[in-house]
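Title: Prediction job returns without error message
Component: structure pipeline
Severity: low
Priority: P3
Assignee: unassigned

Description:
Job completed but the reporter wants confirmation the result is attached to the right record. Sequence as submitted:
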Amino acid sequence: MSIVSSIQKKVTAALSALYNQPFVEKDFQINLTKPEFEGDYTVVLFSLVKLLKQSPDAIGNQLGQELIRLNAGFFTGYNIIKGFLNLSIEESYWMNLLQNNHADIGYGKKEMNGKKVMVEYSSPNTNKPLHLGHLRNNFLGWSVSEILKANGYKVIKSAIVNDRGIHICKSMIAWQLFANGATPESTNTKGDHFVGDYYVRFNDEYKLQVEQLIQTGADKETAEKTAPIMKATQQMLLDWEEGKPEVIELWKTMNQWVYSGFDVTYKRIGSNFDVVYYESNTYLLGKNIVQQGLDKKIFYQKEDGSIWIDLTADGLDEKIVQRKDGTSVYITQDIGLALQKYEEYKIDQSIYVIGNEQNYHMKVLQLICKKLGMPNADNIFHLSYGMVELTSGKMKSREGTVVDADDLVDEMVATAKQHTEELGKVKDFTEDELNELYDILGLGAMKFYLLRVDPKKTMVFNPQESIDFHGFTGPFVQYTYARIQSILRKVAGESPLVNGESFITNDSPAEALLKLEKEVLVLLEQYPAAIEHACIEHNPSVIANYVFNVAKTFNSFYTEHSIANAETAAKKQLRLQLATMTANVIKSGMQLLGIRVPERM
């Protein structure tokens, strides 16, 4: 139990004893005491004034005395300042926290709770490489999965690959027209980039043909519909749906090129999945469900044969669920897949990491699933996130202006190399060690920058700013971890160090905590609560902000107080424990974000 939860329970019990009526934790608020006042945690009294019909000072004095009477070994004193009850915590609490947890690499994480969650993320199209938007999506999905695991959930990471449709056929037609049999191998090109180039080539040719038709007298709408390359693409889609062998063979071949490329990118960015669904296998799902909906009069059929649902009474629109030719639409496929996920894994929650442009679609999906009485419909959760742009503006894949994930990763690693070399502290590294360090720093900078922002917010990614070793960045946190490891190695001499256990005892130092020592400890105590908060909010930025504050606070402490040359042996012991626990928490928190920390830099 966190100290805040413990104080809440103690305050609730004291209020009930004092005023002979029930209280709940929502009746008051607990905050950290402001630095300018004496105390550790503060009870905000104003919400109790109306209820108890007494002044804040009167309530504060009665509550403070009762808390100390009931919890003499926990609270050591109190003071009241303008409606705020500031409580001081017995120092042994902090000492015991440090002694019991400084070497615990699992500190803050919960036991398995028996519940299963599926997190769906990435959702790429097989007509182009992963881009910057996919990076935010992958980092969010992967991190939320790890945060859920840390809170005791069994997590199934999943992806749905959009591997069919008109956009796929565009790349296929362009390859037939312009490739002359070229392959990724023959051109020494990564497979997803190779296919993506033909998607861009299609649109270049399509624009050219539309312009030519307009010049011969056609209006724009007619030109767009009758351009030869578009008509050929539409025919290819029909051929695919009919299972024409040569079309299916080309489709499989080009998709495999893309999958091979995706695998390289996923491995490099540290993204992985337990199960992958393919739209080509799921697009027929939901047809039986449509019939069931008709039978239950949840859906209705129009005169042209198309099937709809009327959601106007729920504040939404009418929605088509099956076309007049009997083919399903995206929402139908999604309904079918939602049911398949549940039937396969019996999940307690299904989380969809999808951009906020799909907010309406996801509302409709969940509402239809509820109306159909599908199991787990109430536990569909849309982790909606804002778009990410570069400082140069928006990206457009049709025009070839998208920033490919691979190119961005390469740029980040190169920038990490440049910044590290400028600092000039890695002259004793081998070439392999340097390359690994640049990779750790470059990817860490990008992940931290993309995850430090609340997912709901649209953001601008600035590569140069993300790798600043002195700002609110991944490299700053990574450097702090490496700095602590360097300190511990020096104090330990040349002996190996594993979580501090090789030279740090579990003896609780007897000397009182100094202000900055306590500030670090108070923050470390909050790690379990931060993990829980990040889970409840499905928000990795909670962890990113937390580990940054830990790193910043430790650096402030270390600027003022030596570890190796501490004033006494007891102080040295305490600070070794403090440094070790800080390093463990930073490493653990960064792992939840998918970020590695270097042992030296």
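Comment from assignee: result matches the submitted record. Residues 260 and 587 are 31 Å apart (CA to CA).
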